[in-house]
Amino acid sequence: MSGDRTPLMAQPLRAPSAGRIAAFLGLFVLGAVVGVAGALVQPAWFPGGLLLALAGEAGLCLGASRALGSRAGAASAAGGWMLVVVLLTASRPEGDFFFAAGGGSYLFLLGGIAVAVICATLVPGRQPDGRPARLGK
């Protein structure tokens, strides 16, 4: 180790602030709204509606992760989306259900999960001291 470089110490994690928690809850609710809107749009104009619904979710997840600067932003938005979509796929006691048993519904569900994972991994991880370079040994 050279004399001019000091070793970096790991910083302990702090509890999130109230504003950050409110942002996560807001993104969760916004993800639920995007899930409902996507469920209504995706069967309407079949390939275009599906692509529009998935693009809406991708925009929300990517925007959430960039706005909060962490993968947790995309995860909270995707969590709201996934909760609503899974609840909409469950059948009701009357025998009705929201999604038809077709390829578009499965593409919306599985494609939405894939989009959420991709958007969450696009955000760079935290770096100590905010340095843009990767840390080496």
**Helical percent range?**
55-70%
Strand content: under 5%
What's the structural domain tally? 1
Shape descriptor reads elongated
CA-atom Rg in angstroms = 19 Å
Order of helices and strands: HHHH
Which ranges are low-confidence, i.e. pLDDT below 50, for 5 or more consecutive residues? Answer: none
How many DSSP H or I helices?
4
Largest β-sheet summary: none
- Span between termini: 10 Å
Q: What average pLDDT do the residues reach?
A: 81
Structural class: mainly alpha
Per DSSP E runs of 2 or more residues, the count of β-strands stands at 0
Could you explain the architecture of this structure?
With 137 residues, the protein is mainly α. Helix 1 packs antiparallel against helix 2 and helix 2 (46-68) runs parallel beside helix 4. It has helices spanning 18-41, 46-68, 71-89, 103-122. It has one domain (18-125). 26% of the residues are buried. The longest helix has 24 residues, at 18-41. It has 4 helices and no strands.
Give a quick rundown of the structure.
With 137 residues, the protein is an all-alpha fold.
Lay out the secondary structure.
Blueprint: H1 18-41, H2 46-68, H3 71-89, H4 103-122
List keywords for this structure.
single chain; about 140 residues; mainly alpha; about 0% strand
